[in-house]
Amino acid sequence: MRVVIDTNVYISAVLFGGIPDQALEIIDKHRYLLCYSDFIISELRRTLGEKFSWENWRIEETLDYLFADAKKFNPDFIPAISRDPKDNPIIACAMSAVANVIVSGDKDLLVLKRHGTIRIINPKNFVQLPLGGVYH
Questions:
Q1: What is the pLDDT of residues 23-75, one digit of tens each?
Q2: Cβ distance 3 to 32 under 8 Å?
Q3: Residues 100, 78: Cα–Cα separation, whole Å
Q4: Collapsing DSSP states into helix, strand and coil, what is residue 133?
Q5: CA–CA gap between residue 124 and residue 135 (Å, rounded)
Q6: Rounded distance, CA 26 to CA 44, Å?
Q7: Distance, CA of 44 to CA of 29 (rounded, Å)
Q8: Where are the domains of the chain?
Q9: Fold held by 2-127
């Protein structure tokens, strides 16, 4: 299974743990392909640095850890799909990666429920998926 994680889920996972962190553990444990883009990395750097005052070395160490076994996909275009244009690069990454699922806590993405064959679900629903990521 190919999974794109929205920036807000990464932030919650590294700052607070809980279900967002469990989602990342499931990806690792079941060897799902974690897919990301330069946009996601940039948003993480900006948010951790500006909003949470993390030092650069701590940000880079965290990014290295999070994306050690991940694959980068940079889309050729950003479609206008979400009601919040800031979410469109996440959808574009998932499209480029031919992902099965986007995991997000963002209501503007979650309201879509899916884009084509890509399901858009929150971390709790992702954690509760049956093994193997079977979708109906």
A1: 999 999 888 999 999 999 999 999 999 999 999 999 999 999 999 999 999 88
A2: yes
A3: 18
A4: coil
A5: 15
A6: 21
A7: 23
A8: 2-127
A9: Rossmann fold (3.40.50)
